[in-house]
From TrEMBL:
Alphabetically ordered keywords of this record: Hydrolase, Membrane, Transmembrane, Transmembrane helix
The keyword Transmembrane belongs to this UniProt entry's keyword annotation: yes
Pfam families reported in the protein's UniProt record: DUF2227
GO terms of molecular function: hydrolase activity
PANTHER family xref list: SLL0924 PROTEIN
TM annotation in the entry: 6-26, 38-56, 68-88, 100-118, 130-152
Protein name: Hydrolase
InterPro entries per record: DUF2227_metal-bd
Length: 171
């Protein structure tokens, strides 16, 4: 299985190919991509690659994706303990959602704690619902970063959906 650095390089390489393809396609007027959409895709792809890698399921140890969080990396230790390496965390559909849900939980805990400890502190407002036109590239960028990781790991899309565990182990 590739190391964190190799995963990052694969994702950066794939991003260059995707963005070159998107640029050519929009020059040829095959698709229309607004700067906001390109930015949304890029941000989500970068967050998925560097901050929300599937290998956070190893966060109880030393792992590249945890290091990118700096001091906050400690927050991922429970996630690493909760999810076995290359288990649900490495499934194609639910895996990426487990990390988003985990982040949401952490944010909710911090906000809850702040409200309790310092009720007067103004909190950033919840952003208005974003349009589908921006949400779609966000989802695409995040999932693309995750799927590239899984492909590099040799994880198949039906991972975790059927009992293929024994077959894999026997190899
Ligand atoms: Zn992995």
């Amino acid at each position: 299985m590739p190391s964190g650095r190799v995963h990052n390089l694969i994702n950066i390489g794939a991003y260059s190919v995707i963005s070159a393809g998107a640029l050519i396609a929009s020059r040829q007027q095959l698709v229309t991509i607004t700067p906001a959409q390109a930015l949304a895709f890029t941000l989500a792809f970068a967050v998925g690659t560097f901050l929300l890698s599937p290998d956070l399921d190893l966060a109880e140890g030393r792992v590249d994706s945890k290091r990118h969080w700096g001091l906050l990396g400690v927050l991922w230790v429970p996630y690493g303990l909760l999810f076995s390496h290359r288990g649900l965390s490495h499934s194609w559909v639910l895996g990426p959602l487990t990390r988003l849900a985990y982040v949401a939980l952490m944010v909710a805990l911090v906000v809850g704690l702040l409200r309790y400890v310092a009720p007067g502190v103004p909190l950033p407002e919840v952003p208005q619902p974003i349009s589908v036109k921006v949400a779609l590239p966000l989802v695409a960028g995040y999932y693309a970063s995750q799927w590239l990781h899984l492909i590099a790991d040799g994880v198949r899309p039906d991972h975790g959906m059927k009992r293929g565990v024994r077959k894999v182990r026997r190899r």
